[in-house]
């Protein structure tokens, strides 16, 4: 973000809070006229600062209020094994986030499911079946205190 000026940073901040804001209102909030604001938005999109726009959904209301974090340790961490795991984990709908970690384990996954019974099924049938998984350890969320979407 070093090549962004103060207007670009304001545009990104406003859009992060409300991606549905009109260009006219956005321009007013950041102190630009409509056309320069549109041009800046387009450049931010073209340069990959803005990846897209989407709705923020309520997982509780959609029946996916159970959150678990899973530490995954692989049996093999050579590039081919990592690539196989990475490709396979992208296809599991319940995996909301997957991060390769520099620690005593290899990956940290955020899983969203309906309830504990559904989570156990996802763990047993999907996560444990991923390529090269040697061990998992689960941490169940008791309360979601802060989420970026909130």
Automatic annotation (TrEMBL):
<dbReference type="GO" id="GO:0005829">
    <property type="term" value="C:cytosol"/>
</dbReference>
<protein>
    <submittedName>
        <fullName>Proline dehydrogenase transcriptional activator</fullName>
    </submittedName>
</protein>
<dbReference type="InterPro" id="IPR036388">
    <property type="entry name" value="WH-like_DNA-bd_sf"/>
</dbReference>
<dbReference type="GO" id="GO:0006355">
    <property type="term" value="P:regulation of DNA-templated transcription"/>
</dbReference>
<dbReference type="InterPro" id="IPR036390">
    <property type="entry name" value="WH_DNA-bd_sf"/>
</dbReference>
<dbReference type="InterPro" id="IPR000485">
    <property type="entry name" value="AsnC-type_HTH_dom"/>
</dbReference>
<keyword id="KW-0238">DNA-binding</keyword>
<dbReference type="InterPro" id="IPR011991">
    <property type="entry name" value="ArsR-like_HTH"/>
</dbReference>
<keyword id="KW-0010">Activator</keyword>
<dbReference type="Pfam" id="PF13412">
    <property type="entry name" value="HTH_24"/>
</dbReference>
<keyword id="KW-0805">Transcription regulation</keyword>
<dbReference type="GO" id="GO:0043200">
    <property type="term" value="P:response to amino acid"/>
</dbReference>
<dbReference type="InterPro" id="IPR019888">
    <property type="entry name" value="Tscrpt_reg_AsnC-like"/>
</dbReference>
<feature type="domain" description="HTH asnC-type">
    <location>
        <begin position="4"/>
        <end position="65"/>
    </location>
</feature>
<dbReference type="Pfam" id="PF01037">
    <property type="entry name" value="AsnC_trans_reg"/>
</dbReference>
<dbReference type="InterPro" id="IPR011008">
    <property type="entry name" value="Dimeric_a/b-barrel"/>
</dbReference>
<dbReference type="InterPro" id="IPR019887">
    <property type="entry name" value="Tscrpt_reg_AsnC/Lrp_C"/>
</dbReference>
<keyword id="KW-0804">Transcription</keyword>
<dbReference type="GO" id="GO:0043565">
    <property type="term" value="F:sequence-specific DNA binding"/>
</dbReference>
């Amino acid at each position: 973000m070093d090549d962004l000026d103060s207007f670009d940073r304001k545009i990104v901040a406003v859009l992060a809070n409300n991606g549905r804001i009109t260009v006219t209102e956005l321009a007013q909030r950041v102190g630009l006229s409509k056309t320069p604001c549109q041009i800046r938005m387009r450049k931010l999109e073209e340069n990959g600062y803005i990846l897209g726009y989407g709705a923020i959904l309520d997982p509780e209301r959609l029946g996916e209020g159970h959150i678990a974090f899973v530490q995954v340790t692989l049996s093999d961490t050579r590039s081919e094994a990592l690539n196989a795991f990475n490709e396979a984990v992208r296809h599991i709908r319940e995996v909301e986030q997957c991060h390769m970690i520099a620690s005593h384990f290899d990956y940290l996954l955020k899983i969203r499911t309906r309830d504990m019974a559904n989570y156990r099924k996802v763990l047993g049938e999907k996560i444990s079946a991923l390529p090269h998984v040697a061990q998992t350890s689960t941490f169940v969320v008791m309360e979601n205190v802060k989420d970026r979407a909130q």
